[in-house]
Amino acid sequence: APRRGSSGVMRPLPLIVVLYTSIAAGSFASTPPAPSLVPTVAVRHRAAVATAQPSASSASAQASIAEEPLQQPPRAIPTGPSPLGLLVLALGSFGGIALATKLLAPLSGAWVGGAKLVFAAAVAGVISRTCCAPLEMVSTVMMCRGDECGSMGEELADAWRHDGMSGLFKGNGANCLKVAPSRGTQFLVYEFVKRQMVAGAAAGAVLSAGNRLVAGGIAGMVAALLVYPLEVIKTMLTIYPEECKATPGGAIGCVIKAGGVRGLYAGVVPTLIAMFPYVGVEFMVYETLKRRWELWAGAPAGTLTIILLGAVGGACAQASAHPLDVIRRRLQLGNMARVSADGTQKPKPPYSNMVSGLYTVGKTEGLHVLFRGLGPACFEKVPSTAIGYYIYELMKRLLRVASV
After folding, report:
1. Which carries the bigger pLDDT value, residue 200 or residue 347?
2. What band does 147 get if pLDDT is binned at 50, 70 and 90?
């Protein structure tokens, strides 16, 4: 059975898994879709237009407008699983992770080693992203809507006021389905490419920062291509929860109805381009700094060091590829006509690729819009990456698997 380390790092794992499963269960819970705000906004808009007309307008027309209801229909109260259901799900999830860890730990071999890496990365990715899901939701909203949205605090407050806890975790269910295979594939391909580099180098050669950048970039592109439809579904659930009926199946239907099967891969090219620096920089910064710290300290990196280095790697990765991230998320929504604040339909984005998207957004909306959402994205990425690397290093020790 897996042994507890001398520092007792295994102790936080049950609490973290319980926290994750409780939040994730709420994000998957079926909630009645909230009534659309567009009819109400349109009624207010018509009333405002009517009052601005000259006094020649008939009294009967004004009376009919005045009779139209201006109150927003009461929102359905989000429902979720019972506390007992959350407890059962939490215990079941932790039990499954503990059992899988116990079964995999004593095994050895190339294929088993790959399975261990995928499992460790998947667990780390799901837990870390769920803990920071509200910040990722706000970041996605701000990148897709640009200057139409408010500040990070205002968007969080608005989501809480309208939909409660479920509003803070919009799209987290699809995100969990995406991040598990995505992070698992990233770390598996990353370790494979590093091993190939070491095998082809001279005996005793050490991987450079550039080697780790290339290996991480390749891993990011492979993983992104594999799970890209889930990325589109997650973005749709975050921006259009009512239209998608707050379910992954409803999001798939919306995408296919608007753009066909090709809509599931809208924005895939800028995503692949963005993933190279995004994942490559993250892996390069984290592992390079970790190796140098261990050489300087003469001992393995501790928990606090891993968390801090993961946070630095996440911040560098997000800042290096944020404009591309803005364009790829907008391209994912390109087939959905957007609704402005006054209820009128906005035209679809006048660009279909990364280059024209960067140029058009910078020219028509301003260069600052390309960095819209960078604050909450970093607020999400920094703790998410820090937690992710902590869980990943912990799982590697429990599974008895090492990195190059």
Report:
1. 200
2. low
**Structure tokens that stand for 91 in this block:** 């215990």
Using an 8 Å Cβ cutoff, are 125 and 110 in contact?
no
Q: How many CA atoms lie within 13 A of 118 on its CB side?
A: 13
Q: What burial class does residue 225 get, using C-beta atoms within 10 Å of its C-beta: 0-12 exposed, 13-18 middle, 19+ buried?
A: middle
At what angle are helices 374-399 and 83-104 packed, to 10 degrees? 50
Under 8 Å between Cβ of 324 and 353? no
Cβ–Cβ under 8 Å, residues 88 and 22: no
Q: How many CB atoms lie within 10 A of CB 319?
A: 15
Give me the DSSP letters along 218-286: HHHHHHHHHHHHHHHHHHHHHH-TTTTTTSHHHHHHHHHHHH-GGGGGTTHHHHHHHHHHHHHHHHHHH
Kindly list the distances between the CA atom of residue 66 and the CA atoms of 42, 55, 237, in Å, as whole numbers in the listed order.
Answer: 14, 15, 36
Stretch 281-300: mean pLDDT, rounded? 92
pTM of this prediction exceeds 0.85: no
Tokens in use for 234? 């997650």
Q: What number of residues does the chain have?
A: 404
Alpha carbon 256 to its chain centroid, in Å, reads 22
Q: Using CB atoms within 10 A of its CB, is residue 147 exposed (0-12), middle (13-18) or buried (19+)?
A: exposed
pLDDT at 348 over 60: no
Strand, helix or coil for residue 354: helix
In this structure, which amino acid lies at residue 308? L
Alpha helices (H) in 37-164, listed in sequence order: 38-51, 59-67, 83-104, 110-131, 133-145, 152-163
Can you name the residues that pair with 346 across neighbouring β-strands?
Answer: 338
Q: Which residue has the higher pLDDT, 373 or 339?
A: 373
Q: H or E element: which one contains 345? A: strand 345-346
- Assign 349 a pLDDT band (cuts: 50, 70, 90): low
Q: Helices 110-131 and 374-399 meet at what angle, rounded to 10?
A: 140
Q: What is the pLDDT at residue 171? A: 66
